[in-house]
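Researcher: Go.
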Amino acid sequence: MYVAILTSKPNTEVLRTETKPRHDAYWEEHLGRIRFGGPILSDDGKTRMGQILLLDVADRETAERIVTGDPFVEVGCFEKWSIHRYRLSVEAGRLT
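Model: Structure:
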C-alpha cells in the first residue's frame, strides 16, 4: 500500500474547473485501487491545499503511474507530489 501526498499549485481554480470532468472520469476507472482519498483544505474549508490518496497497489511504480496519469497532475495543478510506502495501523476505530 502507498500514500500519495500532493501539494496544490496556487491560482489553479480555472484550470481545475476545466479539467475536472477528465479528472473525475480518470479516478472512476481506478476506484478499486483507492482505499481513501480526497482534498486537503484550508482551515476555512474554501481553499484546496492539496490531495491525499491511499492506493492499494503492490509497488511504487504502479502508484506513480496512477498518480501521474491524473489529468490534474498532467496539466500542472500540483506544484509537487510524493509517494511513500504505507502501513495501515488503525481503520474504522480499530487497530489493524
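Model: The longest strand covers residues 34-41.
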